[in-house]
Amino acid sequence: MTDTRTPPARAERPEAPPAKHAPRPSARDRGTRLLATLFLAPTILGIVVFTVVPIVGSVVLSLFHWNVIDSPRFAGGSNYGAVFGDETVLVSFRNTLVFMVLAVALQLLVALALALTLTGRMPGWLRSVFRSAFFFPLVLSAASISVVMKYLFNQDFGVINWLLGFVGIAPVPWLTSENAAMATVVLVYVWQQFGFSFLLFVGGLNNIPKEIHEAAALDGATGLRKHLSVTLPLLSPTLLVASVVGIINALQVFEQPYVLTNGGPGDSTRTVVMVIYETAFEQLRFGEASAVGVLLFVLIMAVTALQFRLSRRFVHYQ
Amino acid sequence: MTDSHLTRRRLLRYGAYGAGAAALGGTAASWERLTGADIPGRDDGSLVVATLGPAYGPEAIRTLREGFRELHPDIKLQINAVQAVDWSDFFAKILTQVAAGTAPDLVYVATEGVQLFAQRLGVALDKWVKRDAAELKEYFADVHPSLVESMMYEGSLFQLPVEFNAADMYLNRQVLRRAGAQYPPADWTRDDFTSLLRDMKQASGSRFTPYFWTNRLWGGVVPWLFANGTNLLAEAKAPGGEWLWDSFYPAGQRAGRGGGFRWTTPQATHDRVEEVYDYLASLVRDGLCTRPEGGNGQNLIGVFSTGRVGVTPAGGFWAGGLHLAGMERDGFDVQYFPRWRTQRMQYGAAGYALLRTSKRQEEAWEFIKYAARKDTLTRLFTTNQTTPARRSMLTAGRYEETGPAHWRVFYDTLDRFPGTGPIPAPPQVAEVEQLLLKHTGTALASSRSVRPALRRLQGDLEKAMERDA
Prior knowledge:
The structure holds two protein chains of two kinds. In chain A, 69% of the residues lie in helices and 1% in strands. Chain A is mainly α. Chain A has a two-stranded antiparallel ribbon with strand order 1-2. In chain A, helix 2 (78-84) packs across helix 12 and helix 11 packs antiparallel against helix 12 (286-314). Chain A is flat, with a radius of gyration of 26 Å. The two termini of chain A are 36 Å apart. Chain B is α/β, with parallel strands linked by helices. Chain B has helices spanning 8-30, 58-71, 87-99, 111-120, 126-131, 133-142, 145-149, 173-178, 190-204, 222-227, 242-248, 251-254, 271-285, 297-305, 317-324, 361-371, 374-380, 396-399, 409-415, 429-443, 450-466; strands spanning 47-52, 77-82, 106-110, 152-153, 156-157, 161-166, 168-172, 209-211, 233-237, 261-266, 309-314, 332-335, 346-354, 387-388, 421-422. Chain B is globular. The model of chain B has no long low-confidence stretch (mean pLDDT 90).
């Protein structure tokens, strides 16, 4: 008796006879390949020049002491030793990870909630207004937004504390307390960034066939149950993309903490990219800065790889 | 079966593709575009001068260029105004140009960068100053020796100062009246200052902060350290410099001068430094001053001119700033920083540094002399955006329109307190400033956090000073 659950053995597959020569591509195929290569060439060239070369350059530079003014001196791994022994660098990695968790979670939550709200019953023109309003901050410069927010959140003269004063709330040290500063930076960042995830979610929600929702409704699924059992699993590929992009961006955060708090109070909002900038361009230790950059690159690669590995379990493709 | 021969139609199509690509490539190649040679002043025989953008607007640059052309029509001049938010940002951009191999010939450098440039990039001006001593006598007679000394490094002179700003105390007249207070006397003390802040606070309510300060190297904690007779880094003088003092300054003025300042040993845990931080922490605790992270120069003019701040330390540059912001000349005034143990004050100065990589050093020296001339500075500093380094330029007429009434305070900070000196700016200044800002924020979180933060500041400064700049 044959066990039908057993996968077909390799021997059962018909084997193609080994070909002496691969079939020669036709002229049309060659032409298509040539065209494809030509179309891809600018992008590939851009990636090589602006991504691959700087990455390799950073790795090489991380093995040297260089202050811009004098010639580079080979340092071996001493820059990495210095980086691991530098408390500020370690704190900046911790801050960046904390920031990433808070910012990405909040960003996805807000974007998803608003996308779900907007895909419900609503006049078309109002939906367009909201979509534009939510996306608008994304096209503004992060530095400009941060300058304005710094005024708004100023403890002594800011509009937010002035308004809170009307309801009897004492001035909040939004940017001047170690506990509040990180939360404020996260809020400003999420306010600007959630529009991107929001657009992805709106697109993802529109791609879910109505029949599936109707079938779920016939089965008695409504409200939260419908979203948890139907919408979220079908939206999981979009969630994966939004979270991967969100995490990569959050790990490279610079403008908001630099302008809002300059990394303070103390080191409480100092991020890895801030440390790279300060070490390189203010303290002229380009080798150490490159070493920190290489470590950040490895961290981003590791987190992204972990996400894709986990996605095999949690992401459902239709 | 596939036909491997090209049909006529396909041949024509690929021919059209090829012709299109060739036309596109040809157009792109013939298009007028930027190349490395288009970087201003690069390889075109110009003398390239880099200035701080916000300090030198288009009008000032035109004035500088045209005046120089009249004097030296044979020297081609290119002035690059580098946009930067502060001196630290400016240096970062200049160093990027150095790294890219497009270093300018001259760079406008403030006290913060004098020693870094002198040690690593600068050319000493000694030989030219000695050669043109007769021409320069008038300049040195007009400039306080402390400003000149601040531009010396290990016995050599690297810049001729053209401007400076000491941290004096600006007072809002409207707030003074509201508090029933008088313009303070020149010898007012720290306790007088505290009483004034309390009176202002009492008269102005909860939406008012009497003292506003910015957490930075110039004008932050450092003026208080100077007033308390101490400094962040132990201050000493390098030997040498007699060649200059003996040639240009009378005995009374050259006494105690040396070959430039040396800042080597951190002393953040000294008693007097702790006293300063305790005092500032008490002001923050009592709501008499802003927290260090809260203050920055961007919003200062607005809150001061509208009477939401009573007092703030600033230099002569603020007279023009307040005037431009619409403040009447009698709406504010200025007084010396209050006395603690001393009334010695800190300042920052600026001038042009000549870079070693310059191939036009003689022309560059001509520009340095031109930029320090009185007629040049008079045409340049028309809006009181700074304090001229030349004493003779501070006149009643200059401040008639902008104020303040006690404009003499600006230069008298040097003349009346001759020990007044530059902010501590060793070659490792970038790291020193960053550590100072970071730990000051932590230290002033509460009165209990002062000592732990200063211990960490001391440890970090020691490490920074051991490092090669």
